[in-house]
Write a structure and sequence with these properties.
alpha+beta; Aminopeptidase; Alpha-Beta Plaits; 6-stranded mixed β-sheet; 4-stranded mixed β-sheet; 15 helices; 24% strand; binds zinc ion
């Protein structure tokens, strides 16, 4: 039997599945992933797969469910997990040109909330899984497909629930999830960034204390003034100190190896903390905000609190700081950096913290992902990437799984991918699916099956 699927048919099938998944409204909050999970259950059952031997559905709360399917290998190697979330972020319906839950196919694009983040990729993972089943791929390791809940609102009902309550279901050596290997246009280049790291979260409250009093008798020791000065110092500093992580080092050196002089030289300069600021000035038109986020802990003031009444000078004023820390940095490191900026006299209260993650760029799976992505677009630049935010990967890390963000495909020129995920008029070109499926298939075939 030929193991090469018919890509035209596979693409059409993926598009049909994606349309159905978009029609299942799984906006989080509240989540309600059940209808999407039932669609996947139905697809698996039509394929002859049965519960509980081939897949199970586990519920963390009413309507909040996760489906985990497994194709068994001969046990030579530990499993590979393909994990995708089926919840989506809310929509502002009136700003959309089409029904966000219609799943319509228009001019070669599948429209709807989740097309990019990440039901489109779930449909592609599912297709690859079905293909492995149909072709009886001689697996040396189990292939696990996890369609999960709650990525968009804190992981509790999805990856966290699985890692803490059902670890046996997702136990794997490696895993793939969202966040990488699709086309990102940058100047004259097309970048394919495979996600290998995520920043951690350090949320805290910065508190200024002052002298209370009657507002009709103003004085300078007002807590609001102190807090305003601290916030202004954060603004003027522009960023916290630079730290170069192994991921950033790898990203810069791999990118430099794929471009011509003198850009290659400039790129290498990005990994040298003492010249990085000069290099950023020379690299006009580059995503400076992103580069800064990848080389520093960040600190963003968000929620302000002070006072109860217009005519009372409050004794205390505070601001929430959404800080994101680089892998290798501790919450205490970030607190020290913030206090070094604001000066003494402020109190910091931790609000929430979660670890980031950093996975190796020299593992056999990473090397394979890199190799196959190059085939997708021989002129494209393939690099490892750190995500400034968090995905399920940082949760799976706690179960010892090495995760990469890998949802490969080539996007047409000018397709505004970065503004459409979580934005209005989210949609996925069918040509993306058609280009990405063979790449995903080759990865699964080479990594999981006997040659
Ligand atoms: Zn997502």
């Amino acid at each position: 039997m030929s193991t090469q699927p018919n890509w035209g048919e596979a693409t059409q099938e993926t598009v049909n599945h994606l349309s159905r998944l978009i029609q299942a409204e799984t906006v989080n909050p509240p989540g309600n992933e059940l209808p999407a999970i039932l669609i996947i259950k139905d697809i698996l059952e039509k394929e002859g797969l049965r519960s509980p031997e081939d897949f199970v559905i586990v519920e963390s709360a009413p309507q909040r469910v996760n489906l985990i399917a497994r194709l068994r290998g001969d046990g030579s190697w530990r499993p590979l997990l393909l994990s995708g979330h089926v919840d989506v972020v809310p929509v502002e319906r009136e700003k959309w040109s089409r029904d966000p839950f219609g799943g319509e196919v228009v001019n070669g694009e599948v429209w709807g909330r989740g097309a990019l983040d990440m039901k489109g990729f779930v449909a592609m993972y599912l297709q690859t899984f079905l293909q492995a089943h149909r072709t009886k791929l001689p697996l040396k390791r189990d292939l696990i497909l996890a369609a999960i809940a709650d990525e968009e609102a804190g992981f509790d009902h999805g990856s966290k629930f699985l890692v803490t309550q059902h670890r046996d279901l997702i136990e794997a050596e490696y895993g793939l999830t969202e966040g990488g290997a699709f086309t990102i246009p940058l100047g004259q280049w097309r970048i394919y960034a495979i996600q290998v790291a995520e920043k951690g979260v350090t949320w805290m409250k910065l508190i200024a204390q002052g002298k209370p009093g009657h507002a009709s008798l103003p004085h300078e020791e007002n807590a609001v003034f102190y807090l305003a000065q601290a916030i202004e110092k954060i603004r003027r500093a522009a960023h916290l100190p630079v730290h170069i992580t192994p991921t950033f080092q790898a990203m810069v050196s791999k990118a430099a190896a794929q471009v011509k002089f003198p850009t290659s030289l400039l790129l290498r300069g990005l990994a040298l903390p003492w010249v990085v600021n000069q290099v950023l000035k020379l690299l006009k038109g580059y995503p400076k905000t992103l580069l800064t986020a990848l080389t520093t802990n960040t600190c963003t003031p968000t929620v302000l609190q002070a006072g109860q009444k217009t005519n009372v000078i409050p004794a205390e004023a505070s601001v929430h700081l959404d800080c994101r820390r680089l892998p290798g940095q501790t919450p205490e490191d970030v607190m020290k950096e913030v206090l070094a900026l604001t000066g003494e006299g402020f109190r910091l209260e931790p609000l929430d913290t979660s670890p980031g993650a950093e996975f190796p760029t020299d593992s056999p799976l990473y090397r394979l992902l890199e190799e196959e992505t190059h085939k997708l677009d021989p002129q494209g630049i393939v690099i490892p990437m750190m995500m400034p935010g968090a995905t399920d990967a940082c949760v799976y890390r706690e179960a010892g799984i090495t995760m990469y963000g890998f949802t490969p495909g080539r996007l047409p020129e000018g397709f505004p991918v970065l503004s459409l995920a979580h934005g209005h008029d989210e949609r996925l070109p069918i040509s993306f699916i058609e280009s990405g499926l063979p790449v995903l298939w080759e990865v699964i075939r080479k990594f999981c099956a006997a040659p």
